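Dear Dr. H.,

I hope your travels went smoothly. While you were away I took the liberty of generating a structure for the chain from your last submission, since the lab meeting agenda had it listed for discussion. I wanted you to have the full record in hand beforehand rather than looking at slides cold. The sequence, exactly as received, is reproduced here:
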Amino acid sequence: MINKEYILIDLYGVIIEESKGFFIPYTYQHFPESEYERITKAFREDKIFGKAQAGKLSNHEFLAQLGFDDPEASMKDYLENYLTLDPGFKSFAEKTCSKYKLVLLSNDVSEWSGYLTDLHGINSYFTDKIVSGDVGLKKPDPGIFELTISRLGCHAEDCVFIDNSVKNLNAASGLGIKTILFNRDSETYDGTTVNDFEELAQLLKDR
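The corresponding predicted structure, in token form, is as follows:
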């Protein structure tokens, strides 16, 4: 039984089946091999993706620097055609919202998050959406969890955090937040683990 008021839930790798790591191969697929060295430098040395996730670059700046001619069209193409909403999420959210306050807590480019939640019609499920590109903090930085708790006006003990990253879960757990691994990637985790939204709903239902 989980007896909490707020469910903090990750987007990529949980609500969306794919992780953001899929965007890197997507980028290589859209450029000739002669551009690979430049793209690799942008990701690895310039850390351009992390800067966009931290709100230091807009979507337009991020994709333009990678070399996409039409950043807006490329964003839409990637988000619409290469990412998948977990088919169990909406049912889970509809059942859960009557008992818990659902809060999106995601590392993401600001414009991407807004576009995705609009695209899939899931905004109404969330009490709040805390996105790294909006707040300038990224998981696993404890600061984003502290900001979340402050913004919600609650205590760490009032929250349960669901993510597919053990590193992020450990950061939240260190602040006293209850954590659950959404096990997309067969990671080893000492804490509570679920494999899909049906298992998560079962864990939460006896509040």
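Two observations you may find useful: Residues 20-81 form one domain. The chain has two domains: 6-17+84-204, 20-81.

With kind regards,
E. W.
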